Structure formats: structure tokens, C-alpha cells
Amino acid sequence: MRYQTQSANSQGLLLFEDEETAARRAAIDELHVRTAIYTASPVVDDLLNRLGWPDGNGRLVDPSCGDGMFLARALDALLAARPAGFDPRGQIEGWEIHPAACVDARSRVAVVLASHGWSPARAAMLANDMVHNRDFLTDGPTTPQWDIVAGNPPYLRAANVPDLLRNEYSRHVPDYARADMLHSFLERCSRTVRPAGRIGLVTADRWMVNAGASRLRERLGQRLSLAHVERLSAETAFYRPKQRRAGSPPRVHPVAVVLVSDDGAGQNLSGKPIHPGVDESRYEDMQLLGDFADVRIAPWLGTEGVFVVDAATARSLPPECLVPAVDTDDIQNGKLGTPTRWAIRTYPGEEPAPEVMAHLASRMHLMAKRGRQGKVWMPPESFHTFDLSRESLIVPRIAKTPKAVRVPPGILPINHNLSIVAGGAATLDEVEQALASPIAAEWARDYAQRLEGGYLSLTTTLLRRMPMANVPA
Known about the structure:
Low-confidence stretches: 1-8, 10-14
Mean pLDDT: 90
CATH class of the largest domain: Alpha Beta
Strand content: 15-25%
Domain Type II methyltransferase M.TaqI-like: 141-220
Number of domains: 3
Number of strands: 24
CATH architecture of the largest domain: 3-Layer(aba) Sandwich
Pfam family, one: Eco57I
CATH topology of the largest domain: Rossmann fold
Strand order of the largest sheet: 6-5-4-7-8-11-9
Shape: elongated
Keywords: Methyltransferase, Plasmid, S-adenosyl-L-methionine, Transferase
CATH superfamily of the largest domain: Vaccinia Virus protein VP39
Protein name: site-specific DNA-methyltransferase (adenine-specific)
EC number: 2.1.1.72
């Protein structure tokens, strides 16, 4: 049975809609709240200029136009270059899934038209023809239609897209472009631009650097070349519609990207990550950290209280089963404090002491689901093969620079922090100095994934590839 619900349209009139329509409207509203981040006009103007707009009789589309800033700036530039009374329909159009945002976009376009001499009524009519209240991912074309695609597509991981819409998109988007709505828009735009056409977008940088987007980059490279990329400031690149909280920058690291459709010639996009603004030649011919040091990730032993215990619990367990353990909260003023927790060390082929088995039986119900695996006396990531007899370094994996802290022998770093043991001719002193050097900090800023507040995500792969200028070969 279908039920009718009462809602108001953009003019405030009461409407009745069936349950299916109401669910879809709610999903679109939810999507809009999560993705409505609009681009400031200076950024728009710069990107349109890089795209060479206006371009003769070329056709431009914004596939997710929001409140119409890209359309308005493109339209103003076009009308300024055309005779009075020029009808821009067929040369500029926008698509927007959210009804209220679509109304805003039409209003903004109508204002531009009126400023170029159209009557308000005629301007409103033209604007309605130019801005479509439709979903580009499900209703948009899949063959070349436009010479220029320009805009700021939504950035939202698939897991956060409302279920109703995510299910719809799965029927229209190839698997390699489903992880994020940005990926889906990039893929669709690549198919709708004509040969020798251009795509200019403001995007999050995730698709350029994340390993999970390598297939997307590779497939885009079959159609497109990268002509320009630059980082933008999140604080100045965007403004927000009224329903979003003002006063704080969006949680995104934006880039301006220009892609060129060259019909199969000269692609320079591949599965390899793209690092905007990085001069890779400056790091050539340097020793890499992974060449002379063992970089490993500290084990995650699961929920604290099971395989990681406090002093009171440790006193009830056999000392030979315990190893002092440290995390980043044990670091104070750049130094490692006295450990306050212990890790229970067990072995796959050997059942531990009765006290340990009793402790695990009483605490295993606390363990996170992803930590329950294998034998009941083994942690989710075992460390029984680790050689703890040597001094090591711990490098916090979330940090502003890759500075390290000394860890004495016999102490285990935990919780996926990065652990380094010197090898070869290098000493731990040299490794520590190299990590604190300006070149290491620059490398991290260039290549690490950016987080919030200036923090970076450091990984074992990143550190192994980090150039160390002051370490002997």
C-alpha cells in the first residue's frame, strides 16, 4: 500500500506525495546537506579562463550546478562577448538534483540575463530552460555532448550516500567509479565531453592521491590528459548555502583541475598518484629510508582491556607473558614516558598460562568485532615474532611532521603507529636526525595524505620512500 504524505514545494504550497516520492525527496535533501559546498567567484573565473571560455560556439555544462555560480559567471562572460539580445540556450546549461538549489540557480541565471537587457519575465523563462532539475548520474548522457564541462561536483564517499540514491547509482556507474560521488562525476564527465574538449573542476584531492582510486585514474587516462592542477585554500575557495553551518572551512583539501579530451593521444593520467605542485626532480638521487632501515607498522591488539592491560590487571598475570607497550599518548614534550600498559604476548601453537586464558575468557566480550579472529588466545595482529631486543623509534602516523621518538629495548609500540629499527651502516641517531630534517618535512607535506588542522597521514610505504639527504649510502 502507498501512503500519501504532505510536504511544501519551493513556493510554500502544500502538496501530497506518495511514500516513494517522499523517500526520494528526503534522500535528496540529505545528500544536499552533506555535499552543498559552493565555489567562490574568483576561483570560478580563474577556472573558466583556463578553459578558454567563452569559446566560439562551444557548449558548456555544469553537471552539478548548485546555486548556479559557475553558470552565472560563464553566462556573464558569454553575453559580454555577444551582441545584445543573444539567446544563450543551447550553449550553456546546468544540471542540479536538489529542487531548492535548482530554484536558486535559475534565479541567479535570470539576474545575469536581466543585467544584459532581458526583461524579468523573459529572463526567468530562459533560465528555466537552461537549468535542469535532474540527476546527472542517472539521467545525464553517456556520449559526447559538450565542449566544456565546468563545475564543482559533490565529494561524498559511497558509504555516506543515502541508500536509495546509492542503489540507483550502482545501476548507472561502473564499479571503479563507485567509491565516491566525485569519482562517479569524473567518470560520467569524461564520457560526455567531445574530442578536444576540456573539463575544468574544483575537486577534493582524494581521487588524485588515494591508492583506492588508481583504477579510476587509469580509466580516465584512456580518455583524458591532465593539463593543469593546483591546490586551493579551503578557507577561501568555497562559500556555503544557508542550510550549512557558516564560519568554518569545509573538511576537504581542494584542487582546481583541467582535463583535456585528446581522443587517445598523449595521455599522462595513469594509476600512479598525482601530487599537485610537487617537483619530483628535487628528490632524485637521494638515499631512501627504506634502503637502510626497517620500517614496520606497530600491531593493533584490539580493544584495550583484552590483550592490552593496565598495571592492576598486569599484576595478576605471569610476568613472562607481558611486554610493556606504548602509544602516542605516552609521548610528552617529544620524550617517551614510563609505560602504563602491558601487552599480552602469546604464540599460535602454544596455549598460554591458565591465568592468561582466564583473563581472556572474562574480557573477550569487550573485543571489537573486527578483532575476533583465529585462535582465542591470539590477538588480531600478533607480535610474537617481533625482535624487541634493539632500541627503536616510534613515529606517530598522524602528525604534522615525521619526527621520531626513542623507544628503549623490550618495549612494544602499538596501535598502528610506525616503528623504525636502524639497519645496515646507519645508526638510530642518523635515522632520527634524518626524520627531523627539513627535506623529510618537505617530502611529507608533498606526498602524505592531508588531514585536518595541518596534520598528515604517515604510512609505512611513505616513510620507506622518504629521501634522507644526510644519511650515508
